[in-house]
Amino acid sequence: MIKKSLPKYQIEREELAVTLVPFSITGSLHSVKQNSEAWSRNEESWETKLLQPSPKEGKAPRKVGIAADHGGYNLKEQIAVTLLDKGFEVVDFGAYELNPEDDYPDFIIPLARAIASEKVERGVALCGSGVGATIAANKIASVRAGLIHDLYSAHQGVEDDDMNVFCLGGQVIGSALAIELIEIFLSAKVSGAVRHIRRRAMVAALEQIESTHGLSKTEPNPRES
Question: Which NCBIfam families match (predicted)?
């Protein structure tokens, strides 16, 4: 067992489940696509209102959640210290000790729920490869997690796709690159360009449909219309 390396820091630890606040949007993927021209003309409709810039656009996050299993534990500890030194408020969702038998969903899901409920503004999730963490986080509605190991995607994922959880592999990259990538992720701002908002809205509409009753067998295929 590795001794905790952060005794001098007061990192908030989240050990209770967070109530999920689902991302609410009406309509369907088909109607989103069909009404894209109306959005461009700024017509008064629910679609037009959806296209209005989000209040978070242009704002840098200050409260960051972080979570990792044994595969990302050591890197998580280093990242947490660095973020604290840079003035971020860090909420640690575990693991709180190195346990080779722990399971990444136990830590990643509470982090993802905190993102969904806006208890934290952005999240950093780690496992050995980052793949499991990404899959788990994206099971929670309104979470947009990406597996990132390159500089370009670290900011592009936020700007174009409103990525709010940054996933990486603790056994894949070193601490220096990981910290550089996360700093880029946290400094990136969501784009207010209409084309990006439209695409994000399409994904959000699909997510809402799936979370309520699943895609209808009669749901039109946007590519066939």
Answer: PRK05571.1 (NF004051), rpiB_lacA_lacB (TIGR00689)
Residue 108 lies in a domain: yes
Give me the domain span that covers residue 95. 62-187
Tell me the one-letter amino acid at 120: V
Angle 24-62-94 (CA atoms, 0-180°, nearest 5)?
80
pLDDT tens per residue across span 154-185: 999 999 989 999 999 999 999 999 999 999 99
- Average pLDDT of the segment spanning 36-40: 43
Is 88 part of a structural domain of the chain? yes
Neighbours of 158 (CB within 10 A): 25
Catalytic residues: 127
| pLDDT at residue 18 tops 50 | no
Order of strands, edge to edge, in the sheet holding 89-92?
12-13, 89-92, 63-68, 122-127, 165-169, 145-147
